[in-house]
Amino acid sequence: xxxxxxxxxxxxxxxxxxxxxxxxxxxxxxxxxxxxxxxxxxxxxxxxxxxxxxxxxxxxxxxxxxxxxxxxxxxxxxxxxxxxxxxxxxxxxxxxxxxxxxxxxxxxxxxxxxxxxxxxxxxxxxxxxxxxxxxxxxxxxxxxxxxxxxxxxxxxxxxxxxxxxxxxxxxxxxxxxxxxxxxxx
Length: 185
Hints:
Helices cover 52% and strands 17% of the residues. The protein has 185 residues and is an alpha+beta fold. The chain has a domain at 95-184: Chitinase A, domain 3 (Roll), CATH 3.10.50. Strands 1, 2, 3, 4 and 5 form a 5-stranded antiparallel β-sheet that branches. Helix 1 crosses helix 2 (69-93). The longest helix has 52 residues, at 9-60.
């Protein structure tokens, strides 16, 4: 029989620390893999949603034989515009966006507009954003404007932004109060 050498307390603690460290590294690697997988699943979800929208647009265009990419793209744009309008309606219902007496764009403004080319042809029928989300240069171009005003070369691509609507973003305390009231109803 051979005698096994007993480990000292310090050696046992060091062994446990090493085992825990390796478990931590394994957990970190698994977390990274899970995050990568989650990103891939989200990309797949977006792709499937885009395919579903395109399929629905194809179905909406009918079976008259006139189905072409222009008709499908027009339907897709119309659906996207409606979806954006629905989001605004939802934000207004939740008390996050408010009609405002002050029509000038300020720090707490939410802007809706459309993009036009040099000949005033509509390039993008609807875009919507909070002023706070813009770059400092873009903020300067829009600040103080009102619904109906145009901003030349808004995003640096030569297109003109026509401002169609301006809303105020509610103060945070009002948003929370309105949200609680809507949940209680």
